[in-house]
Structures are given as structure tokens and as C-alpha cells.
Design goal:
The structure is a homodimer of 383-residue chains. Chain A is α/β, with parallel strands linked by helices and 383 residues long. Chain A folds into 2 domains: 170 residues, Rossmann fold; 198 residues, Up-down Bundle (Dehydroquinate synthase-like, alpha domain). In chain A, helix 4 packs across helix 5 and helix 6 packs antiparallel against helix 7. The longest helix of chain A is centred in the middle third of the chain and has 23 residues. In chain A, the strands form 2 sheets. Chain A has a 6-stranded parallel β-sheet, sandwiched between helices. In chain A, strands 7-8 form a two-stranded antiparallel ribbon. The two termini of chain A are 34 Å apart. The radius of gyration of chain A is 20 Å and the shape is globular. Chains A and B meet through strand 1, strand 2, helix 7 and helix 8 of A and strand 1, strand 2, helix 7 and helix 8 of B.
Chain lengths: 383, 383
């Protein structure tokens, strides 16, 4: 099983590129744009600089600062309604995955009828016709989600308490590593682990493909080299640039392979215990790689080697799994990712939570309920 | 100056993927497709297998076997007219760049008025609205052109004797390395050098970008490792697969940076003396890298290192240029690329041909007429 590598959106990458936002919006023909972000990003001073830049290009701005983590449907609906009321002709999403996904959702609602819930998990449905959609530029301020390089978003259905994918591409991503300089060490590590999971899951997916593999390998190599530095010295711009590039490459690498065990179980874990996404998926990566190694050792070996591990030539698949597991465990500790027991006080509650054990689709090794429990328990004990 | 990395089309890569052509066309909703190729590819038995596969999916085929090198406008017009007369609802291009570019041109003419000449070099013009275009799948049978991963084509204006770019994306590329197994050694080397130039030019373009750089580095590394093997042992499928992947990555890497000196001068050289494209550009690569090294040594160093050269840490830009030049010269000889004097008997004619000295746009070092002459002369003497 191989998959089709599909196109990411146009990507404008580099230090200082956010200073060109206004110019790019102008190229898209925008005159008045809805700018979507959260209050934290605003307080960090990132939004104002970009707003000034947009205004300097003669483009009006309408502000929406209510983005919340795990973007709730009603927030997306509110953003869309504001954009319609203000008759904007474009959007900008500034922030982490939540801001970018809220912007994608709002983009849909500028052209198609509300509420956003109509467009949840359309899967096999005809994709929305994007021809008449207004342009949207997304500007990540973390290095992790990869939402800047994928046409998907995740929105929370607040009535049914579940998360749903929406499909909406972006017109351009502007990735300026300078915007991530002020990111605290904990968020840097957590979002960085999200990117590491994306790349490792893409590489070991049963729907992997060779183009994706090239991107994932480079992403893992960059993360291993740059994440510890970015966590220790937040203003090290080389490390920040390496991480921003890695996150984007990792996002791109998912086009085709989709995700694996860490995202399949981790997102459920995150929702149940209110754990930040990158941490919830990252804490399961080491054990997940060990679990799949017996059936896909060659790819797990690449993950370990890109992280700097030495894998002896005659290693068995099981030995490769253990090397990968230990390498990732050490890396998890090196960047001070939290212990699972600090996040989930009651291990038994976690192991008995039925909701954590739904099946996985793109994992090369079939995952039973018992396997999932084992991965969770081992991750818990080792972290 | 950095550039926007733009999306390639969906890519389906891997051994045996051409056996899925019919299924993919069906997914696009096709019932009758125009299949475009040249007689050589047909004689090699490649077309028949794919035709059988398309028919097995219940899709009718209309054949167009008149593709010529440096696709002439009238051939493209003829292909388009056949497609319209037969009321096809999709296209397939099988072959090297000429077949793929002819298919792109014919795709335009199924929706927009003939002749293809109307769409030459539109540059700043509004891109054609692709919404109502019929789907086209391209299937490369060489590993070089990268046309499978770009929305551009090059068509010859037979009245004015010049080549023009057209812009037309493809719906999907199916890249099956098994189709390249029968390629003779000389064509393998020449097309492989085309890909090497794409990657080296992308990496050293003044409009380079970091995503492109990742792809270009991997492409060069793969070519250095696989091209000599693919030339020596044509049926070595690992080497063929490495080259097919490299050519696609190299094509993708050009999205944003565009080309450099080898393509700028080489295409003119090729047209004047009827030299195969890959040879005409490839014979200039070594000297071109040496010429730009003084202003972009860090990137020329990457080219040399990806090709296996050892570059001492304290090398000057000029020394890096010489190392890169020698590495590429040796590689050129290793894969038995032809001596320039075998292709162009009269060196003075070449050096006096005004048509070879038009300016270049994306080269990091300004190229005067004298510089261009020097590159041509040194290339000639050294090959």
C-alpha cells in the first residue's frame, strides 16, 4: 500500500517573511481582511506588528481575538459571522493550530452557509468547491502543528463533545521563524514533539510514500538537532528556524500517509484529560515505535537513526524497536517534557477509559485493546 | 530574495504504480481518454501495457502517437483537435518531457480555443482558469525532465523558431520506475544530468527557498549514488527507482527558484545544434557552479558534498568552486556523457553565436557576454 503525495499550499518561508504579509494580501486582491488570533498571541506583541504591516499596504483589518484551544464550533461560527457582517474579502490566521484551523473554518463560512458543523468529517463527500472562497493566509507562531501545510483543520463539536476534521485549503502559509522566538520552553517542547510525531507517523504509516519519506526524514533530523537548543535558548534563531522548517516539512509529510498510533490514541487522551496536544501525542511516541517495529523495522530504524541513534547492522526488528524507544524516551526527557503521572493522576482511570481504545487506520500493525493498554501503561511508567 | 514554494500536483510514486492508471482515471470520472505518446515508447512496449490497464477499467482510449522532441506547436494543435473531435473527457501523456508537455498543451486546447500559440509565455497574464479543464495524468518513462512535478511545459513556435513556456498543471503524475528499466545508457545519463542541473540550479538560485533546498539536496544525493549504476546496469531497479525519485524531487525543487545558467544557456545551445536537452544543459553544469561559487559558496559546497566531495573546512569560495567543478566533471565522464566537440564540431561558431548570450534572471552572479563565452569555452575544452 502506497499513497498519493498531494500538494501542500504555497509556502513562503524565512526569517522576516511575516513583514511581507500585507504585500501578499494585496497580490491576492484583498481590501479588507478578517484577522483571527487569540489573546495570548496579541499580548506577546506578534499580532500588532503584522497588523501594522497589513495596514501599511492599504488594507483594512477586522479583528477577531476569541480563538480558543481545540477550536469550538461556536467560535468558528462567530468568526465567520463577523467576516460576513464586515464584508471582508480575505482572512489571516495568526497563531498555533487553533488559530489556523479557526481561520480555515471561517473561510468556509464566508462562502457556504453556517454553521461549520455542516462540514464536519465529510470524508467521502464531494470536497467543497473552493473556487469562490476568499483567500486566506495562515501565519504559524509555533513550530509543531503543521496546519500551515495541510488543507485540514480540527474543530470541536461542543454539543456532542467530539472533534471533527474539516477540509479547507489555505491560499498561502507565511512561516517566519522569528515569530517563535518568544515561545516558552514548555510549549516549544510540546509543539516540537507534535511535529516529531507527524514525521515519525508518516514514515511508518502503512500508507507511506517516497516523497513524504524524504520530507519526514529531514524533519526528524532537524528536530533532533534543534529542539533541545530551541528549548534551552529560546532566542537562538538558527534553532528556531530549524524547528519551523521541521514542523512544516512534517506537516507536508502527512499528505498521503495520515497519522499513526500517537495521534490516534493521543488526541483521545488529550481530550479526556485536557492535556496540550503535542504532549498528549508525544508521550506515546516511544512505545508506539517499539510496538510497530516488529512489522516495519526498516522504517523505525530510519526514525532512530535520524535522531542520532546507532543501530547495529544485524539488529533484529525487536532490537530496533527498543533502540528507537530508548532514543525517543531520552529525547523526551532531554527537552523536559512532563511526566505522564503529573498530567493524569489516576493511571487506572486511564487504563479503563473505554474511549481511548478505538481502532486505528494507518498503523502497520493491528492494534488490539490490550496492545493499546500496554502502550499507555508503558508510556505512563517510563515517562 | 527568497521565493514561495508552490505546490506540485498529486504524485503517485512507486514500482508498479502504472498498473493503477485505469483506476485513477476512473476516480477522475473519465470514460474516454486521449493517450499521447511517441512511436519509440510504443515500440518499447510501454504504451500497450498501460492501454490494456486503462481498457480493463472500462475506459475507451483514443491514440495519438505523433509526439516529437521539443514539441512543435502544430503537433500540440493536432493532438488537441483529435481530442475535441473524439469528445474525450481526459488525457494521458506517456513518455519523456515532450509527451508530457504535449499532453499539457492538448489539455488546454480541450477547453480553450486553438491554436496553442495563444497561450505562449503568458508570464504576467492571468493564469488560465483550470476549473473546467479535463483531467490529465502524466506518466514519465525517463528520469530527468521533472515535467511530472511542474505545471509548465515548453512548446516550439515553428514559425518563429523559438521555444515558449505554457502553464498548465497536471491532475496526477504516476511515476513507475519500472517503466525506465529499458532506457539506453546514453539517454539515462543525459536525462539524469537534466535532473542534476534542476536540483543544482534550484539550490543555487537567488530565488532559492528552504523547502526547495531540502528536495534538491536529496535529489543530488540520490543522483550521485544511483546514476552510474543505472547507466551500467539498466535493469537495476533500485538504481532506477532512486533516479525516478531524484528526477521528481528535482522537478519539485524548481518551484520557486526557477533555473540557472545551465538551463539558460544550455537550452539555446541545444536548439542551435540539435543536442538532446539533458546533454546540452549538463555539459555546462561544472563550469557554471565554478562561476557562481565566489558569490554563493555555501550552496555550491552543498552541491559538491551531496555528490560525495570532501570540502575542507577552511576552503575559500574559489576553492569550493573548483572542487564542485572537478566533482561534476568527473561525474560527467563517469556516466559517459559525450564530449562537446563530438556534438559541436566548430568551437568558434559556438563562441560567436550571438543567440547564446541572452541574459539570465535567477543566477546569483551577473553573467556578462564574456562570462558566458568563458563558461562555454571551458566546458568545451574540459569535456
Amino acid at each position: 500500500m502506497s499513497s498519493v503525495f498531494n500538494s501542500p499550499n504555497p509556502i513562503f518561508f524565512g526569517r522576516g517573511t511575516s513583514k511581507l504579509t500585507g504585500g501578499k494580501l494585496k497580490e491576492f486582491g484583498c481590501k479588507k481582511v478578517l484577522v483571527i488570533f487569540d489573546k495570548g498571541i496579541k499580548a506577546a506583541g506578534i499580532v500588532d506588528k503584522i497588523l501594522d504591516n497589513i495596514k501599511a499596504s492599504g488594507i483594512e483589518t477586522v479583528l477577531f481575538d476569541k480563538v480558543e484551544p481545540d477550536p469550538p464550533d461556536y467560535i468558528v461560527n462567530e468568526a465567520g459571522a463577523l467576516g460576513l457582517a464586515e464584508k471582508v474579502d480575505g482572512l489571516v490566521g495568526i497563531g498555533g493550530g487553533s488559530s489556523m484551523d479557526t481561520a480555515k473554518g471561517a473561510r468556509i463560512l464566508l462562502t457556504f452557509p453556517a454553521p461549520i458543523n455542516r462540514y464536519f468529517g465529510r470524508g467521502d463527500a464531494e470536497p467543497l468547491d473552493e473556487r469562490n472562497m476568499k483567500p486566506v493566509i495562515v501565519i504559524p507562531t509555533t513550530a509543531g502543528t503543521g496546519s500551515e501545510a495541510t488543507p485540514g483543520g480540527i474543530i470541536t463539536d461542543t454539543e456532542k463533545h467530539v472533534k471533527w476534521p474539516i477540509i479547507c485549503s489555505v491560499s498561502m502559509a507565511i512561516i517566519d521563524p522569528e515569530l517563535t522566538v518568544g515561545l516558552p520552553s514548555g510549549i516549544t517542547a510540546s509543539t516540537g514533539f507534535d511535529a516529531l510525531c507527524h514525521a515519525a507517523e508518516a514514515l511508518t504509516s502503512k500508507a507511506h510514500n517516497r516523497i513524504s519519506e524524504v520530507l519526514a526524514k529531514e524533519a526528524i533530523t532537524l528536530i533532533a538537532r534543534n529542539l533541545p537548543v530551541a528549548c534551552r535558548e529560546g532566542s537562538n534563531i538558527e534553532a528556531r528556524e530549524g524547528m519551523s522548517l521541521a514542523a512544516t516539512l512534517a506537516g507536508m509529510s502527512l499528505r498521503g500517509p495520515f497519522g499513526g498510533i500517537p495521534h490516534d490514541i493521543g488526541t483521545l487522551l488529550g481530550a479526556r484529560y485536557g492535556i496540550p496536544h503535542g504532549t498528549a501525542v508525544g508521550c506515546l511516541l516511544a512505545e508506539s515505535m517499539n510496538f510497530i517495529a516488529p512489522v516495519i523495522a526498516d522504517k523505525v530504524k530510519i526514525v532512530a537513526e535520524c535522531m542520532g541513534a546507532e543501530v547495529p547492522a544485524n539488529s533484529t526488528p525487536e532490537e530496533i524497536g527498543i533502540i528507537a524507544r530508548n532514543t525517543i524516551r531520552n529525547f523526551y526527557k532531554e527537552v523536559n517534557m512532563p511526566k505522564m503521572k503529573a498530567l493524569i493522576p489516576d493511571k487506572q482511570d486511564m487504563l479503563q477509559a473505554e474511549k481511548l481504545f478505538k481502532g486505528t487506520s494507518f498503523t502497520p500493525r493491528a492494534l488490539t485493546r490490550e496492545h493499546a493498554k500496554e502502550i499507555l501503561e508503558n508510556s505512563y511508567d517510563a515517562s
